[in-house]
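F.,

This is the one I mentioned.
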């Protein structure tokens, strides 16, 4: 392919990407811009926590124990004199990375199981569907607690437990989409033209079925944040003194009457982050809906 053709192709691709980004911005409402700003701050805390945290999250100051929010400590300090804002910022990485691991496990395993169940049917579909029914009959947080107890306590095990608990939701969505797509004319035409089952599955069915599953990913990411924070709150996640959002709420509950900011502010960060991610996920889903 000649250089002018490649250049023209690259230019068209960049124009299409720019158009998609402008269309995305055009769909945003004022509250969506606020959600976008929150997500940007969370990403900054994940990638460069030192920019947002002026203090060491593990080192306390005996002269500043249980200090209320002020100009020197915007979120106040805890019972050891540690800056709460710094602990929240440095805890962002553990919470979000744990949620990402959980979503990757749920998305990967759930997608494969949904594809196999819907496309091959028969005994394969029956076995996978019964397994999904069993998983869906158990509340997700309770199932995560059972799995993390079996695996052992720790941040990584908590993430794996949440991922296992989310497999059923991804499997059900993927199975439903594949059942719809595999009966479409272009899939049948591919079979009639001699396409093998695995080729048709990978080339035609999967690319036209994954959009709804990806739309679920943003929502499931927010749910994973809540579940991982809940497991840490109960003592199943990251051990002290490591900062993690759920653990910060757990540590502050002993002082909720005298120092309510130790519970309110980390809880507010969790709620605002989950709301912002869910809001942007809804906007992206509406943009992908014909």
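My design for it:
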């Amino acid at each position: 392919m000649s250089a002018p053709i490649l250049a023209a192709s690259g230019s068209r691709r960049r124009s299409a990407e720019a158009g998609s980004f402008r269309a995305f911005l055009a769909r945003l409402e004022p509250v969506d811009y606020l959600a976008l700003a929150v997500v940007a701050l969370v990403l900054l805390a994940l990638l460069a926590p030192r920019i947002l945290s002026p203090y060491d999250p593990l080192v306390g100051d005996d002269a500043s124990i249980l200090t209320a929010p002020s100009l020197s400590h915007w979120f106040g300090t805890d019972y050891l004199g540690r800056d709460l804002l710094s602990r929240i910022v440095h805890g962002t990485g553990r919470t979000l990375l744990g949620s990402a691991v959980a979503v990757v496990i749920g998305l990967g395993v759930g997608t494969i199981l949904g594809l196999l169940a819907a496309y091959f049917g028969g005994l394969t579909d029956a076995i996978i569907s019964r397994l999904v029914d069993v998983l869906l009959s158990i509340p997700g947080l309770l199932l995560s607690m059972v799995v993390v107890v079996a695996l052992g306590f720790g941040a990584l095990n908590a993430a794996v437990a949440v991922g296992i608990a989310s497999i059923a939701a991804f499997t059900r969505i993927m199975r439903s989409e594949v059942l719809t797509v595999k009966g479409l004319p272009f899939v049948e035409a591919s079979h009639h033209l001699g396409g093998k089952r695995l080729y048709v599955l990978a080339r035609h069915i999967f690319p036209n079925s994954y959009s709804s599953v990806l739309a679920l990913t943003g929502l499931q990411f927010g749910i994973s944040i809540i579940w991982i924070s809940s497991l840490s709150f109960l003592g199943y996640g990251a051990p002290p003194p490591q900062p993690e959002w759920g653990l910060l709420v757990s540590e502050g509950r002993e002082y909720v009457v005298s120092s309510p900011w130790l519970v309110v502010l980390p809880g507010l960060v969790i709620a605002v982050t989950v709301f912002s991610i869910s809001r942007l996920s809804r906007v992206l889903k509406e943009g992908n809906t014909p």
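Residues 47 and 93 are 8 Å apart (CA to CA).

Talk soon.
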